[in-house]
Amino acid sequence: MIAFNLKLLSITYLFFLLSTGVNAQHKAPGFVLKGVITGSTDGTVVRLVDIDGQKVLDSAIITNERFRLKGQVAKPTTCWLQCDSEYAVIQVENTAMSFTSVLKEMKLNYTAKGGREQTLQNALDSQQRPYERITTSAYDSLTNKLYSDTVHKARLMQTYKKAQNTYMDVYVAFGRKHFNSYIGMDIVYMNRQRIPKDSILLLYNDLPSSLKATPVAKGLHTYATNKLAVKGEQFVDFDAKTIQ
What we know:
The chain is α+β, with helices and mostly antiparallel strands and 244 residues long. It contains 7 helices and 8 strands; from the N terminus they run αββββββββαααααα. It has 2 domains: 31-114, Immunoglobulin-like (Sandwich), CATH 2.60.40; 124-228, no CATH class. The strands form 2 sheets. The protein has a 4-stranded mixed sheet. It has a 4-stranded antiparallel sheet with strand order 3-2-5-6. α2 packs antiparallel against α3.
């Protein structure tokens, strides 16, 4: 009887090990983000926040200017990486990721590696940052009244508006050019009123079925087709321009 019970226990344990192994094999991989923030102090909390979902995906404590975050996302997700009062915008995917920055330069001068979406974010940043630096500098001068006279103030305002407009032109053009991505679809969706609806429909039609099934793509399709159904709507030529 004892031998039978031991055999039954062994078989049960074997099934437990097998089921655990199968579950581990089928468990979807997550992301691991390792980072260095120069100038940060020990004990500072770093948070990874899903911008759209408005939720913290993970947090960690800085030790020797280093941190490690991990978790899982259902799809590539635009996030804030927050440290102290500074932040950076990154694209999180279920892969190994890295982040490096000086604390006070996180917003405009970080370096990050990850999946395809972060590679696109890096490309977008390289195009936008020159104009973002100009707008930031002009804005600081205006808000802190660092101008010498009304002529200087007017020049700063003109510089700010021109750089801001170019910044947005770069942003929208990038979204149209890289529409076959989550970051591209998000850009187009957020700026859909700046883009002809027939152009949005052409972009949508070129998407693979996997991306057409996303809520953002469906929303854009609904937005575009509603107006296109109006009788007499003019169809404009599509031209996704790039800005160097």
